[in-house]
Design brief:
The chain has 275 residues and is of the alpha+beta class. The chain is built from seven helices and eight strands; from the N terminus they run E-H-E-E-H-E-E-E-E-E-H-H-H-H-H. Strands 4-5-6-7-8 form a five-stranded antiparallel β-sheet, with no helix packed on it. Strands 1-3-2 form a three-stranded antiparallel β-sheet, covered by helices on one side. A hairpin with a 2-residue loop joins strand 7 and strand 8. The longest helix is centred in the last third of the chain and has 31 residues. The N and C termini lie far apart (116 Å). The N terminus is likely disordered. The structure holds zinc ion (ZN).
């Protein structure tokens, strides 16, 4: 009498358990499923048959493990080959008979071994799949010196980077403008319009005349995003971030670093005095 057993198992268990009892294998989406019967046919005891089945199973496992895709790596900061370590999916139908499927892929960078999770949602009524990554692709890495910023500036600074990671454009620029405004108020006070504040910054020796123009451009981009519905490009966002970071570093970080460098640098030997 046939007895059907249905359960997932790995290759090692397959070889140990299946002596004299294997009848058929099915390759499922995620695992192997084994359907066995009571030993009856002589061929089922044949070691070559077992070996062949195990070889086929092993090849399928290896081919699944070796599946590689080009995906952005936050650690390598560029697109790299990623190995699909594990895939889990679920699917179903809605009451309106629309089909949906959710697939999670765990991907490992072949270069640095950083791991990222990808969620793909397919819906029959939507031609484009919704694909998201966790953590999301980082477009820009925060500088290490941010820990040296005053705590209030650091809080806004971190929020700007969170909005960059969320693939937004307007919010980082508005945040960058806020950072500039905070810096100006801390260094020269709340002295009217932004243009007047920039002039004060220049007069205080914090920025050069050339940099005032650059800052003016950054502030105007933030203003346009906040009040005129301007949708900046990725390049615009990066330019504004470059400008703001350079100023923050020059005002809050480099002076202390220069002082420490002076203290740790051995003084020049004095001139020899002639007798
Ligand atoms: Zn990597």
């Amino acid at each position: 009498m046939l007895r059907f057993l249905l359960f997932p198992f790995n290759l090692g268990r397959l070889c140990a358990r299946s002596r004299g009892s294997i009848f058929r294998f099915f390759l499922g989406m995620e695992r192997f499923y084994y359907v066995g019967v009571q030993p009856s046919a002589a061929c089922l005891h044949s070691p070559p048959t077992l070996r062949r089945l195990c070889t086929i199973a092993g090849m399928a496992e290896r081919s699944k493990g070796d599946s590689v895709e080009r995906v952005h790596c936050n650690n390598c900061r560029t697109g790299t080959d990623h190995r699909i370590v594990k895939t889990i999916s679920d699917s179903g139908e809605t009451e309106a008979e629309d089909y949906w499927r959710t697939t999670f892929d765990m991907l490992e960078c072949c270069g640095c071994h950083e791991v990222v999770l990808r969620r793909r949602f397919d819906f029959s009524a939507d031609p484009e799949p919704d694909i998201r990554y966790f953590p999301p692709p980082v477009s820009r890495h925060p500088p290490r010196w941010r820990y040296r910023l005053p705590s209030d500036l650091r809080t806004v600074f971190d929020e700007v980077y969170l909005s960059l990671d969320a693939n937004t454009r307007c919010l980082p620029i508005i945040g960058a403008r806020t950072l500039l405004d905070m810096l100006i108020v801390q260094k020269v006070g709340d002295v009217g319009s932004f243009k007047q504040k920039l002039k004060k910054l220049e007069a205080g020796g914090f920025v050069s005349a050339d940099n005032v123009e650059i800052l003016d451009a950054a502030l105007d981009a933030g203003n346009a995003a906040a009040h005129r519905g301007h949708a900046p490009s990725v390049s615009d966002v990066n330019t504004v971030m470059d400008i703001v970071e350079n100023l923050l570093q020059a005002v809050y970080v480099l002076p202390d670093m220069a002082q420490r460098l002076k203290k740790t640098t051995p003084p020049r030997p004095g001139k020899k005095t002639t007798p």
